[in-house]
Amino acid sequence: MPTVRGKTLKAVTHDIAEGYVTVNPIFLKSLDDDSLKGIYHELMKTQAEIRAEKFPHSDIQSIRWRNVRLQRLYQASMVIKNFARERRILLI
Q1: DSSP readout, 5-68?
Q2: For residue 11, which of 7, 47, 72, 81 is within the disulfide window of CB 3.0 to 4.6 Å?
Q3: Where are the domains of the chain?
Q4: 23 CA to centre of own chain
Q5: β-strand partners of 4
Q6: Backbone angles phi, psi at 88, to 5 degrees
Q7: What are the distances in angstroms from CA 83 to CA 12, 45, 48, 55?
């Protein structure tokens, strides 16, 4: 199973969602093609997991926290897509 900085890809994506890891081109430079594809697919899975959670209708703080996590994951996926496009790496 591929790892990034000593963590599994799933743990890295959860760290991205929580705001502990920032995805930028410098962070992605050290990854090989397979790790880049793996982290992208794990981001999509984590996004789906968060969306599948029960929506907190009456709790505004929980709604905000859910949206912030989804925003971080989406932003990270866009950075990875653009980085892969520049390097001519297919993520599919």
Answers
A1: TTEEHHHHHHHHHHTSS---HHHHHT--HHHHHHHHHHHHHHHHHHHHSPP-SS-HHHHHHHHH
A2: 7
A3: 3-87
A4: 8
A5: 7
A6: 60, 50
A7: 18, 20, 22, 32
Using CA atoms, how far apart are residues 72 and 69, in angstroms rounded to an integer?
Answer: 5
Q: Please report the pLDDT score of residue 1 as a whole number.
A: 63
Query: Model-level pTM?
Result: 0.90
pLDDT category of residue 49 using cuts at 50, 70 and 90:
very high
DSSP reduced 3-state for 76: helix
Say how far apart CA 74 and CA 58 lie, in whole Å: 25
Tell me, what amino acid is at 66? R
